[in-house]
Amino acid sequence: MPSNIQEVYREQILPLNEKERLKLAALISDISNKPETNGEAKSAGGIREIFGSWSSGNPHSSDNEQIDADLAKAYADTHDDE
After folding, report:
1. Which of 17, 36, 58, 63 shows the greatest Cβ crowding within 10 Å of its Cβ?
2. Is residue 3 part of a domain?
């Protein structure tokens, strides 16, 4: 029996095909978005506990203006040099 969430993921979820993993993620998302009995919505902390979080190592990775600039640069690239 798995003893922590990483083992559960590795042993039970990772072997599922993509369709089943997506179905599971949708079910978890649906459960986490249901209001508590007192009418307050659950925090996103539960999802982060299940799926974890990721850091790119760049302290500005969530800078929307930089993201927009990077996207504009990528869309403008014609890839003619390839």
Report:
1. 63
2. yes
- The answer, as to whether pTM is greater than 0.70, is no
Contact 1, 8 (CB under 8 A): no
> 80 lies in a domain?
no
Q: How many domains does the chain have?
A: 1
CB 66 within 8 A of CB 60: yes
pLDDT in tens, 18-62: 888 888 888 877 776 666 555 555 555 566 666 666 677 888 777
The answer as to whether 76 is a domain residue is no
Question: DSSP secondary structure string, the chain?
Answer: ---SHHHHIIIIITTS-HHHHHHHHHHHHHHHTSBPTTSPBPPTHHHHHHH-----S-TTTT-HHHHHHHHHHHHH---TT-
- For 35, phi then psi, to 5°, come to -65, 150
